Inverse folding.
């Protein structure tokens, strides 16, 4: 279950008219979509601007019997523009939740955030009252211009980082079945075009190959048995101007 922090009459932290509840909803939906694309059965505490108490959010997860609870928030500090970075909160520093929190932070650090680490917060209701492993991610400070610029300019990469951190940890811990990832660079009907792209990629030292097992001829790079390696390769391909898609 993906939880967008706050909502409705609870805006969360506010900075220059920017409301935490809006950032969290947008990011939660984006993260959920990526998880869904990777075969995870995703549900949400909210998909619109409605208020629920933290207790109601926790009960929603318990009643649905979900395996993991991921809560998305933005941080704030008493003084504006003094602190920036990401941190993740867990009930205590042990088990799967701690692994997931560390992985998410590391992925977000790669996007450009300062990594402020994982903290134990045993009194937070969504961490304390959920029956399953739960992580609360503070995706940068809403009263930091640096973090807001990162958030707005790298929104897709941030959503991907959070989803990747979660998927990697779940894969590593054997919670979900190990996947095999490849990066698709082109789909063709015509072999000649497929070969041209494959050869162009090979010349640039990409481990490219052709997969003609589907209805189209697919030019791919890979494979990788963890998503973060596939994501790193996808970033490289995108920087070289290719239109890519991670497949598993
Ligand atoms: Zn919050």
């Amino acid at each position: 279950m993906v939880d967008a922090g706050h909502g409705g009459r609870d805006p969360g932290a506010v900075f220059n008219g920017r409301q935490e509840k809006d950032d969290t909803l947008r990011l939660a939906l984006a993260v959920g979509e990526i998880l869904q694309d990777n075969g995870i059965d995703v549900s949400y505490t909210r998909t619109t601007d409605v208020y629920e108490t933290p207790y109601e959010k926790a009960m929603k997860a318990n009643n649905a019997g979900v395996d993991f609870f991921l809560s998305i928030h933005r941080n704030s500090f008493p003084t504006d523009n003094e602190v920036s970075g990401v941190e993740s909160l867990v009930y205590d520093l042990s088990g799967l939740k701690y692994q997931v929190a560390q992985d998410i932070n590391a992925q977000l650090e790669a996007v450009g955030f300062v990594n402020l680490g994982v903290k134990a917060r045993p009194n937070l209701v969504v961490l304390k009252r959920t029956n399953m492993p739960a992580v609360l991610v503070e995706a940068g400070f809403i009263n930091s211009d640096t973090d807001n610029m990162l958030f707005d300019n790298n929104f897709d990469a941030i959503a991907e980082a959070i989803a990747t951190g979660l998927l990697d940890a779940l894969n590593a811990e054997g919670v979900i079945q190990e996947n095999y990832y490849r990066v698709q660079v082109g789909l063709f009907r015509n072999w000649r075009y497929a070969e041209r792209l494959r050869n162009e990629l090979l010349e640039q030292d990409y481990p490219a190959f052709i997969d003609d097992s589907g209805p189209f001829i697919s030019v791919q790079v890979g494979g990788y048995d963890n998503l973060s390696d596939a994501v790193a390769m996808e970033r490289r391909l995108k920087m070289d101007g290719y239109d890519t898609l991670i497949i598993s």
Observations:
- Residues 20-37 form the longest helix (18 residues).
